[in-house]
C-alpha cells in the first residue's frame, strides 16, 4: 500500500540524515506495518530537521503538515536499535501490546492514537522502531512540574473541564495502582497539559510503551529498577494528594 506522503527536503543543515529521509519515504510506502496509517494518507508533510523532544528512548522530530492539517511527530527509538527485523518486530509488538492495554484503560481521549513502524535509519543498516503520533505543540506543560511549582491547583481552579479531566485521569491511575500496575510517570513531559485548536486545555499521556506490575519491579531487584519503582510510586502519591485536595475544595 502506498500512503503517499511527500517528504519534502529541508534546505536547512541536515541532522536527521539522508538515510532516514529515504527510509521514511520507504516505510510510509512499504515498511513493515503494525497498523495502517490513515493519518498520513494526505500529502504535504515536511520533516523538520531539529529534534523537538528527547526521552530515555526516543529522539522526536516534527512532521509538519504544510496544508494546515494536523502536524505529527516521529519518534525514533535511538536507544533500542536492532540488527534483524525479527527482533525489532518482536519488540515493537510488545510495545504495541502495552500501548493497547493502556489505551483501553484510559481511552483515546487521554492516550492519543499512534502508529508504529520498523525502519533502517542509518548507513550501518540497523533497525529502529518508529512511532508516529499527533503533534501537540511546543508549549506542552509537564503536569508534575506544574504541581511541584504550585501552579497546577491555580490552573485547574479556573478550568472546570481540565479539573474533570484530571480527576478522571487519576481515578484510572488509582484503579491500576490497586492492581499493582504502573505507567511511566517518571519520564519528563509524559503526562502533559496541551492546548487544542479551540485553546482548551486537555490532559494527555503521550509515552504509553511502558507498563510494569509491582511484582515485576520487585523481582527485577536491581538498584536502578528499585529507584524507578519508588520514583513512580512517589509520583502516583503526588497525583493522589492533588486529587484529594481538589475534591476537598469542590
Ligand atoms: N506528540 C507530541 N507532541 C509534542 N511533543 C512531543 C510529543 N511526543 C513527544 N514529545 C516530546 O518529546 C519528548 C520525548 O517523547 P516520549 O514519547 O516521551 O519519548 P521517550 O519514550 O523517549 O521518553 C517528550 O517528553 C516531549 O517533550
Ligand atoms: Mg517520555
Attribute tags:
single chain, 250 residues, alpha+beta, Phosphorylase Kinase, domain 1, 2 domains, 6-stranded antiparallel β-sheet, 3-stranded antiparallel β-sheet, 40% helix, 25% strand, globular, binds adenosine-5'-diphosphate, binds magnesium ion
Explain what you see.
The chain has seven helices and eleven strands. With 250 residues, it is an alpha+beta fold. The longest helix is centred in the C-terminal third of the chain and has 27 residues, at 223-249. The chain starts with 17 loop residues before the first helix and ends with a helix. It binds adenosine-5'-diphosphate and magnesium ion. The site of adenosine-5'-diphosphate has 21 residues, from strand 2, strand 4 and strand 6.
Q: Do you know the CATH topology of the largest domain?
A: Phosphorylase Kinase, domain 1
Termini, distance in Å? 52 Å
Unreliable segments of 5+ consecutive residues = 1-16, 27-43
SSE pattern, N- to C-terminal: HEEEEHEEEHHHEEEEHH
Bound molecules: adenosine-5'-diphosphate, magnesium ion
CATH class of the largest domain: Alpha Beta
The proportion of residues in beta strands is 25-35%
Measured as a percent range, the helix fraction is: 40-55%
**Could you say which structural class the secondary elements and strand pairing correspond to?**
alpha+beta
The averaged pLDDT comes out at 81
- The DSSP helix count reads 7
- Strand arrangement within the widest β-sheet reads 1-5-6-4-3-2
Amino acid at each position: 500500500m502506498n500512503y503517499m506522503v511527500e517528504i519534502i527536503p529541508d534546505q536547512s543543515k541536515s541532522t536527521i540524515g539522508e538515510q532516514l529521509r529515504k527510509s521514511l519515504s520507504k516505510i510510509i510506502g512499504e515498511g513493515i506495518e503494525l497498523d495502517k496509517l490513515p493519518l498520513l494518507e494526505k500529502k504535504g508533510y515536511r520533516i523538520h530537521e531539529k529534534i523537538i523532544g528527547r526521552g530515555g528512548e526516543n529522539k522526536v522530530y516534527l512532521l509538519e503538515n504544510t496544508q494546515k492539517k494536523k502536524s505529527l511527530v516521529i519518534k525514533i527509538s535511538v536507544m533500542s536499535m536492532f540488527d534483524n527485523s525479527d527482533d525489532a518486530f518482536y519488540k515493537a509488538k510488545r510495545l504495541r501490546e502495552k500501548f493497547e492495554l493502556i489505551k483501553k484503560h484510559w481511552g483515546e481521549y487521554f492516550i492519543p492514537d499512534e502508529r508504529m513502524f520498523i525502519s533502517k535509519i542509518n548507513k550501518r543498516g540497523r533497525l529502529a522502531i518508529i512511532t508516529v503520533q499527533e503533534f501537540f505543540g511546543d508549549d506542552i506543560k509537564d503536569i508534575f512540574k506544574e504541581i511541584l511549582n504550585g501552579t497546577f491547583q491555580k490552573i485547574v481552579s479556573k478550568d472546570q473541564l481540565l479539573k474533570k479531566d484530571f480527576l478522571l485521569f487519576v481515578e484510572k491511575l488509582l484503579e491500576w495502582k490497586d492492581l499493582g500496575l504502573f505507567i511511566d510517570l517518571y519520564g519528563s513531559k509524559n503526562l502533559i497539559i496541551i492546548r487544542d485548536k479551540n485553546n482548551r486545555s486537555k490532559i494527555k499521556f503521550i509515552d504509553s510503551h511502558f507498563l510494569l506490575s509491582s511484582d515485576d519491579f520487585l523481582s527485577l531487584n536491581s538498584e536502578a529498577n528499585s529507584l524507578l519503582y519508588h520514583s513512580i510510586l512517589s509520583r502516583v502519591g503526588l497525583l493522589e494528594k492533588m486529587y484529594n485536595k481538589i475534591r476537598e475544595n469542590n
